[in-house]
Amino acid sequence: MTDSGPAGQHTVRRHNCALVLDAIASSPGVSRAEVAARTGLTKATVSTLVDRLVTASLVREEGRQHRSGPGRRGTSLSLSPDGPCGLGVEIGVDYLATCVVGLTGEVHAEHVRRFDNRDRPPSRVLARAARELDRALADTARRRLTVGGVGVAVPGLVETSSGRVIDAPNLGWQDVDLATDLREHLPTLPGDLMIGNEANLAAVAELEALRHRDEDTPDSFVYVSAEIGIGAGIVLDGALFDGSHGLGGELGHFPVQPRGPRCSCGARGCLERLAGQDAILERAGAADVDTLVTRLDAAERPAITAVRSAGRMLGSALSAVVNLLDVTTIVLGGTYARLHPWLVDPLTAELTDRLMGSPWRSVEVRRSVLGAEAAVRGAATSALRTVLTDPDTYIARRVQAEDRTTNSVGSRIDGGSGSSPAS
Fold first, then answer.
1. 10 Å Cβ neighbour count for 236?
2. What CATH homologous superfamily does 216-368 map to?
3. CA-CA distance, 217 to 234, in Å (whole number)?
4. pLDDT tens for residues 355-397?
5. How high is the pLDDT of residue 183?
6. Nearest-10 crossing angle of helices 289-297, 277-284
7. Domain boundaries, the chain
């Protein structure tokens, strides 16, 4: 084993800075002394790092703590609402969405544009995505918001270590180096570029939203994302589980009819081919989801039959997941969130019939609190997480950017002082 040697001063500061910010993010209102006690750092080190975080607008001091009992009250610390934002973009099969999320979870802007991205060359779709990102960056600049990183949600297999899209069958993409290609279209993207599967990112956003709302948040659940395709984000013990390579959660390609219709992945009888949005609309004779919901409200038989059939097939696939993982909650997102009132009974009935030990355990089927916005918010949140886990690098980039701006302004002033025409 090779000895990498002792950590340098910068490495130690980088680690400690992240440690302090995490303590503050985990317990808003905490004091410097309490951060020191939680992290094991000295009070002097914590005070220096907190000052650095406050200067970078990552942390805000909010006056004396409110508490009863003896002892000196410390200054309350929390994440700053004026801090950096995460910018997310979701590349859907038939739309592009952008979202800007602040450090404390507030959504500053959301926008959706309808595009048919199916079987379009990746370069063309990414050129569109770059234009949407450019518009969002211009909007954040007008609002005087700082973007700390960019996240991209894609409906397909994404290798988490590289951000490479291995396969996105509903887009017709294979082996796309999305990070490199997107930066070619928009080389000025700020901060780190994070790329992930849309269902995984939606699950993370859903978990954060439930925590912010102080609702009864399950530690483990399966988030089912449904648009044209069907994906699943698996949360176990409060953390995303996406497999060894980041390729887990492909619920839409569970076989439910071995001799069924051919799927975009090449196999037959996949769940999304039989219970996805397009399959439901076709069976119901509806042009779009809005029309379908209207017909469901009117209790039209073809619409009810189509959704109930999809619910039973979805329940069959999910029963295998629940039997394997023993989760207690299913969260329906995307189109399924809108169809929840009509899906939940047949889905739950199928789960009950197929679950081992069903008399002794139950599974709750919830509607997503974020609905169709979950994936793009998850993309923005994932970008922001790079700042929270490595604030020292973000601060260094910010200082460098300010230095470049100062030097550029100084050069223009110096150049202008000696260039005025003679009178």
1. 14
2. ATPase, nucleotide binding domain (3.30.420.40)
3. 14
4. 887 777 789 999 999 988 999 999 999 999 999 999 999 999 8
5. 92
6. 50
7. 9-79, 85-201+375-390, 216-368
